[in-house]
Amino acid sequence: MTSGFVRHRRSKRAIATFSVFEADLLRSLAGQLVELLHNESAIAATERDPLEALLDFSGPTTEPDDPVLRRLFPNAYRGDDEAAGEFRRYTEGALRDGKARAAGTVIDVLEEAGLPPEPTDEGITIDVELEPETALVWMRSLTDLRLALGTRLEVEEGDEGYWYSLPDDDPRAQAHNIYEWLGFLQETLVAAVR
Question: How many domains are there within the chain?
Fold first, then answer.
């Protein structure tokens, strides 16, 4: 298992070495997030005039049906559905695009670092070096990935006892281990860029 991110000795870059399994898992999680973000009509068409896209405020006005998307895009105004809908209409599309781009950056960095399309050799390691700007993008994406997984698992504050009581071979325990690993990566990345 990776030791997390550390600061490069002579630069402001954050570095980490992932096993091929860990890198492929991160790529898969980021890919699933991109797919979820693009799976609803809130995403603007990609082949549009930039000015037209900038002036398009035809986004969604209601909360998403998916609980993960509701967690990632909560209502801005509780108790005022009309104001919340208007805010969502003007902002959600751009927010989705930003989250999808951040997850895409995670995928791009892993693949540029040498993660093959279909990893087969467990002995391979992937060395990742993040410039400060890219590290911030990774932090945002790790947060989104952790929120998504925590929402799917229905993780709640103070429920650690439940998760630790599950047998190791329980798929929920394994998914929770990934959730904790994402938190570990977040913490080490934040520490590495301070």
Answer: 1
What is the domain range of residue 29?
A: 6-193
Q: How far apart are alpha carbons 15 and 192 in whole angstroms?
A: 8
The interaxial angle of helices 132-153 and 171-193, nearest 10 deg, is 160
154 sits in the region (left: phi over 0; alpha: psi -120 to 50; else beta) called left
C-alpha separations of 169 from 153, 156, 172 in Å: 16, 21, 9
Digit-coded pLDDT (tens) for 132-183: 999 999 999 999 999 999 999 999 999 999 999 999 999 999 999 999 999 9
Q: What is the pTM of this model?
A: 0.86
Is 25 among the domain residues? yes
Domain annotation covers residue 1: no
Task: Work out the angle at residue 39's Cα, subtended by the Cα atoms of residues 155 and 189, and round it to the nearest 5 degrees.
Answer: 50
DSSP code per residue over 27-78:
HHHHHHHHHHHTSSTTSPPSSS-HHHHHT------S--SSHHHHHHS--SST
